[in-house]
Amino acid sequence: MDYEKICEISRRLALEAGAAIMEVYHSPDFDVRAKSDDSPVTAADEAADKLISAGLTEAFPDIPLVTEEQAASHSQTGLTTFFLIDPLDGTKEFVQRRGDFTVNIALIENGVPTRGVVYAPAKNRMFWTDASGQTVEETGALDPATVGETRPLKVATPGEKLRVVASKSHRDAATDTYIAKYPVGDFLSAGSSLKFCLIAAGEADLYPRLGRTMEWDTGAAHAVLLGAGGQVVRFDDHTPLTYGKPIYENPFFIAYAPGVSLAEG
Description:
By secondary structure, the chain is of the alpha+beta class. It is 27% helix and 29% strand. It is globular.
């Protein structure tokens, strides 16, 4: 597997997709339509998906794609190696112009997200795994043609009081009940896959998700967290969250920095 090329192409495509998304974001108005599952979709989702899918298919014609915006790709089964794409995670945040949305590209190998890129264009934050699997945050101009300054990321060692990150759009009583099992010192609120990235960057310790998600919602950020020393496990039995499941649907899960003593659900 040419990880050097995969990381280079994925990074560039994420930045290019982010630029396309921001063109729509800064436009005076844009249409919001409902998909078959009632989730919103915009021209930004579709433009980013088209750009990423075309770029990956051209560069890696032998690696299948599973992407949120192409329902036909969801019928693929038994894949051991594939790209997993959410071209615009956090469409609700995008529509409300809150900024917490991301471009997500992951490489899945044997059920594990081994490489990934998460780009938050409105926040100018870019997280990706390099060819060795180490997660970095890139700063500076974020030029698609040239990699700028990067810093390696490593999860923090949790203190006595935990920093817990939760969803802006999906917070509920069940999540609050579970979080209450921990000594919480600080609450952070973030949208989309950025919650994983905050743990990877050492800015948070724990993110429980007691709600429906799909694999494309989590794959790239899961890779980013793994590359920084973090973990993502199923909520029910604390075994690693895996990919390539039927209909690409996730169970409830917990993302965390090792050192957090996980409570039972």
